[in-house]
Design brief:
The protein has helices at residues 23-45, 50-62, 107-117, 125-134, 148-157, 231-237, 239-248, 254-268; strands at 6-14, 83-89, 94-101, 122-124, 178-183, 189-195, 216-218, 224-229, 273-278, 284-285, 292-299, 304-309. It is of the alpha+beta class and 311 residues long. It has a single domain (6-309), classed as (Glycosyl)asparaginase (Glutamine Phosphoribosylpyrophosphate, subunit 1, domain 1), CATH 3.60.20. α1 runs antiparallel to α2, α2 (50-62) packs antiparallel against α3 (107-117) and α7 crosses α8 (254-268). The longest helix is centred in the N-terminal third of the chain and has 23 residues, at 23-45. The two termini are 30 Å apart. The chain binds aspartic acid. Aspartic acid is lined by residues 12, 68, 165-166, 175-177, 195, 197-198, 207-209, 215, 228-229, 231.
C-alpha cells in the first residue's frame, strides 16, 4: 500500500442517556459500527477509492434499523419516511445529493448516481424518485422502513406541532444521522451522509445532511467532513465549508479547525452536534459538543476504535 489509508464513520450525535443504554443495545450499536468500518476499510486496503469506501460504509448503516437513515428512518408527520443523503469527492469537487425521497433503500447510492449520471447536484422529492426509477433503483414497500420503536416515538407527538430529533423525548436528545469520511491510497478523500431527518417533520423540511458545504463536504486541499446534529444550526453556520475555510485560509490543522467549529462557533448559535473529518494525510478528528456520538475510526497504522460517549 503506498500511502496510509483511513476511514471514520458516525451514527449520530446527541445526549445519549447512559441509563437508557442496555448492554445488549450497546453491543448491537458497536457491532454494526464495526461492520460498517470494516467494510469501508477493506475497500481502502485493496486500493479502492475513498468514494467507494464511504458509500459502502454508509450503506451498512442505512441497512440497519438502529440508525436514523435508510431502513431505520424516523416517521414524518404523514407517517412516511422522507430521506436525505449526500456524497462528495475531494479530487475534483464532484457532488451529488438527494432530498425528501421515500421508499429508496439506499439514498446514498442514489446521491452517487446523481453525481455520476446527471448534470445536477441536488434532486428532491418525486423528481428524484423518477430519476431513481430511470436508473434502475427498486422502490421498497413502506413496510420495509417500519420499526416499532420509531413508530411509538412518532405516536407520542403526532398530533402536535412538535417535531423532534431521533430517539428523543426532549428536543436536544439524540440525532441518528449516519456518515463516513475516508482517505484512500491515492490520497483522495471523500464524504457521505444519510438521514431520515426529524420525527414528525412537516412542510418538506430539509436539514443540513443533503446540503453540500453544510452537512457534507470534501476537498482534497482541505478535508472531507460529515456532520450530525440540529440541522437548522448547521445550515446557519455553514458548518462543513466553514471547517474547510479555516484550514484553507487560516491554515489551521484539521483537529484545531474542527474544534473551533464544534466547540466555539456552533455553540454561539446554540447549536449542538458533532462531525467526523479526515484530511489527505489520513488524519482523523471526531469532535462533538453533545453527551455522545456513535463513531468509529480505522487506519492502516493499526488503529481501530469504536466509541459512543467521551473517551
Ligand atoms: N442533522 C440531521 C438533520 O437535521 C439530524 C441528525 O444529525 O440526526 O436532519
Amino acid at each position: 500500500m503506498n500511502s496510509p489509508v483511513s476511514i471514520a464513520i458516525h451514527g449520530g450525535a446527541g445526549t445519549l442517556i447512559k441509563g437508557k443504554m442496555t448492554p445488549e443495545k450497546e453491543k448491537s450499536y458497536r457491532e454494526t459500527l464495526q461492520l460498517a468500518l470494516d467494510e469501508g476499510f477493506s475497500i481502502l486496503k485493496k486500493n479502492g477509492s475513498a468514494l467507494d469506501a464511504v458509500e459502502k460504509a454508509v450503506i451498512v448503516l442505512e441497512d440497519s434499523p438502529l440508525f436514523n437513515a435508510g431502513k431505520g428512518s424516523v416517521f414524518t408527520a404523514d407517517g412516511t419516511h422522507e430521506m436525505d443523503a449526500a456524497i462528495m469527492e475531494g479530487k475534483d469537487l464532484k457532488a451529488g445529493s438527494v432530498s425528501l425521497v421515500t421508499r429508496i433503500k439506499n439514498p446514498v447510492s442514489l446521491a452517487r448516481v446523481i453525481m455520476e449520471k446527471s448534470p445536477h447536484v441536488l434532486l428532491a422529492g418525486q423528481g428524484a424518485m423518477d430519476f431513481a426509477k430511470l436508473h434502475g433503483f427498486q422502490l421498497e414497500n413502506e413496510d420495509y422502513f417500519y420499526d416499532e420503536f420509531r413508530y411509538q416515538q412518532w405516536q407520542k407527538i403526532k398530533d402536535s406541532d412538535h417535531f423532534q430529533l431521533d430517539h428523543s423525548d426532549r428536543k436536544d436528545s439524540k440525532f441518528g444521522t449516519v456518515g463516513a469520511v475516508a482517505c484512500d491510497a491515492n490520497r483522495n478523500i471523500a464524504a457521505a451522509t444519510s438521514t431520515g431527518g426529524m420525527t414528525n417533520k412537516n412542510w418538506g423540511r430539509i436539514g443540513d445532511s443533503p446540503l453540500i458545504g453544510i452537512g457534507n463536504y470534501a476537498n482534497n486541499e482541505t478535508c472531507a467532513v460529515s456532520c450530525t446534529g440540529s440541522g437548522e444550526f448547521f445550515i446557519r453556520g455553514v458548518v462543513a465549508y466553514d471547517l474547510s475555510c479555516l484550514i484553507e485560509y487560516k491554515k489551521l490543522p484539521l483537529k484545531e479547525a474542527a474544534d473551533e467549529v464544534i466547540f466555539k462557533r456552533l455553540p454561539k448559535l446554540k447549536g449542538d452536534g458533532g462531525l467526523i473529518a479526515v484530511d489527505r494525510s489520513g488524519n482523523i478528528t471526531m469532535p462533538f459538543n453533545t453527551e455522545g456520538m456513535y463513531r468509529g475510526m480505522r487506519n492502516s497504522n493499526g488503529e481501530n476504535k469504536i466509541a459512543i460517549y467521551e473517551d
